[in-house]
Amino acid sequence: MSASLLEARRVRMEFGGGLFERQRLVAVQGASLQLPADRPVVVAIAGESGSGKTTLARLLLGMIPPTSGSILYQGTELKQLDRSGYQVFRRQVQAVFQDPFGVFNPFYRVDHSLELPVSKFFPELTRDQRRERIEEGLRAVGLRAEETLGRYPHQLSGGQRQRIMVTRALLLDPKVIVADEPVSMVDASLRATILESLFRIHRERNISLVYITHDLTTAYQLSHTILIMYRGDVVEVGDVEQVIKAPRHPYTQLLVRSIPLADTKRRWGEDPDGEPAPSQGGAGPETTEQALSIANGTGGCPFADRCPHVMASCQQTNPSLVLTDPGRAAACHLYEEAPALSAEQIATLSHGGTEGT
Q1: Scanning 58, 101, 156, 341, which has the fewest C-beta atoms within 10 Å of its C-beta?
Q2: Would you say 276 and 292 are in contact if contact means Cβ atoms under 8 Å apart?
Q3: Which range of residues forms the domain containing residue 280?
Q4: CB–CB of 133/171 below 8 Å?
Q5: Is residue 25 part of a domain?
Q6: How many domains does the chain have?
């Protein structure tokens, strides 16, 4: 197995359980992911709202420590890094967040957001060198310095603000960019521009991307491999071509089926042959206690109440990821005869795709 640059190894994240809140919510359960050190990759993490995507992104960024499991950078757990090692991690693993409106301080010009990280991590640069570095970064994302610098955030569009956040990440020469829904709050006309900029940066600067999204179409276009999450569990992982074109897990199948097609004769809720799509509801709305029971792994498969293939075993145990095909795994009792995988094997699947999708 190749050396890892950034790795999540069976991480679990729980919230709650304090003095006045006895029940605990499991936001991420046993997720494993690995970015290789020898080549840049694009890994997509997809799923509906509440599936744990953003929590996993925050774990990878070191913003929160996992309840159990490990986040490793260059083979060392984050909590074991010394001060200089953690500074390297902070510089080389950067984030682009979902909300381009809330990340700016409205009292400062946008220059402040760009000059501050450069001054902190590259104190040896002169004022002119910092300015040149910032202008080059703006050009890399399609912005002109004379039309951007010196302005306050409210004087810029949402697309401009989001591209400035990409510039801010680039200024530190990162090895990894974790992009959490980077285009969900900008106009549709700008989404392709921002995503194209991110992918071009990945190719030209050899930067790995972790792309968090609920949009399977852009995940398919950008990524080499993909993780599908549902209620904190990774239910399918592997090569994006296999996962999107021939999904194995029933949840992934329903996600792919829900992608709108450009067919004016097809009615919403029908499959491509004009038949009604399989029902996604089984047991109806669940109680909080039932949801927490399933999320904590004590109530069977978390997708059982919506699965069209539900069996008795689905209500009893939460399935582990098994190898369904070369380069792809799924967590489903339909494939219980397939070989089980270790955390290391699951993590390796997250960068097993080929370049140039």
Answers
A1: 101
A2: no
A3: 248-350
A4: yes
A5: no
A6: 1
